[in-house]
Amino acid sequence: MPAADSRAHFAALGGVVPANFAELPTPCYLLDEGALARNGQILGDLAARTGCKVLLAQKAFSNYDLYPVLAPCLAGTEASGLFEARLGAEEMPGKEVHVFCAAYREDEMAELLRWADHIVFNSPAQLAKFGPMAKAAGKSVGLRVNPECSTQEGHAIYDPCAPGSRLGTTRAQWDAAVAEHPALPDLLDGLHFHTLCEQDADALAVTLDAVAAKFRDLLPRMQWLNMGGGHHITRPGYDVATLEKCIARAQADWGVTVYLEPGEACALNAGYFLTRVLDVVHNGDTTVAILDASAACHMPDVIEMPYRPPLLGSADAGEKPCTVRLAGPTCLAGDVIGDYSFDAEPQPGDLLVFGDMAIYTTCKNNTFNGMPLPAIWTRGADGTCRELVQFGYRDFKVRLGR
Ligand SMILES: *Cc1c(COP(=O)(O)O)cnc(C)c1O
Fold this sequence. Notes:
The chain is α/β, with parallel strands linked by helices and 402 residues long. The chain folds into two domains: 157 residues, Lyase, Ornithine Decarboxylase, Chain A, domain 1; 217 residues, TIM Barrel (Alpha-Beta Barrel). The chain contains 13 helices and 17 strands. Strands 1, 10, 11, 12, 13, 14, 15, 16 and 17 form a nine-stranded mixed β-sheet that branches. The chain has an eight-stranded parallel beta barrel with strand order 2-3-4-5-6-7-8-9, surrounded by four helices. Helix 8 packs parallel to helix 9. The longest helix is centred in the N-terminal third of the chain and has 18 residues. It is elongated, with a radius of gyration of 22 Å. It starts with 5 loop residues before the first helix and ends in a 5-residue tail after the last helix. The N terminus is likely disordered.
């Protein structure tokens, strides 16, 4: 991740902690409806200008109470499987439901066909197995292709084009499958690719060239082309003009309806995570503030990605007089959020506000160490905060036994 730009992360707060945050329980996620609406507007305007259709990838953000904020700007939702497909159908009613899964189960297909409008298969074998049933049910059927074009460095676990990847069908895999089942192409209504992660449109343009080169024969026969997620469209400075050129090119060259299914971009910078300092310990030269929030439990991407989340009012380590490691209360030695610097050493009871916490957090957290799940609140466009849901002991226990 690029160096934290705190202005963008906290723009919706005007860069300061609002007074009413002091009344909120910690830890808690606070979803910002105004920021969400602003993202929706950018995506909706893009769709209106270009004729593309934008879907919410629910795996990044699935706080459905706020779907009504995004729904007017979107064509629908994208799901990673049965449950998300059902959630999209239930909570964004009347909108399209698209699903991609690396492998579908036989025992879920009938129900999936109830919820989904588009079903994208990952392999020719899955397409051959379930495609006829999906078509008979009147669904639009797609294949995820692997253009074998890596455009990102560093994060191999986020690169579906890495050698040996299981995600998407390569040209060689497709040719081998069609040699055996010549009717396979007739099942296809569309192609899907998803190869980007937090990237700008230059990477999309390179990828689109690779898709065009590898699947030139199939594309003109398709009704739609889904360009996946990973487009950081709502990030300040994103190159929308190049994105629009990519969309226009696909529309002109192949006559397809273009879909984009960003997750991050829908809810980028649209949430905060509020936590308080419980204790401050000094070990040699290191000062550690132990928070009532855990990286491992409440913001797992900090460890998995890994990245350092933006923190309001702080600076990078060493920039301000007092550098402090912020860490969780769990037993995991590596439950560290990052090193930040402050004007003065944080004290027990101090409130800290992390930014960009709407994505890959509430939908990914866990109760390791018996950590409580943080409450989820929303902040209206007028700044008032409202509790959506809180969790307790029962939510921890219910997943562990009868
Ligand atoms: C993860 C994913 C997305 C969303 O990605 P973001 O990086 O959150 O925009 C979209 N489509 C598919 C198939 C995905 O796996």
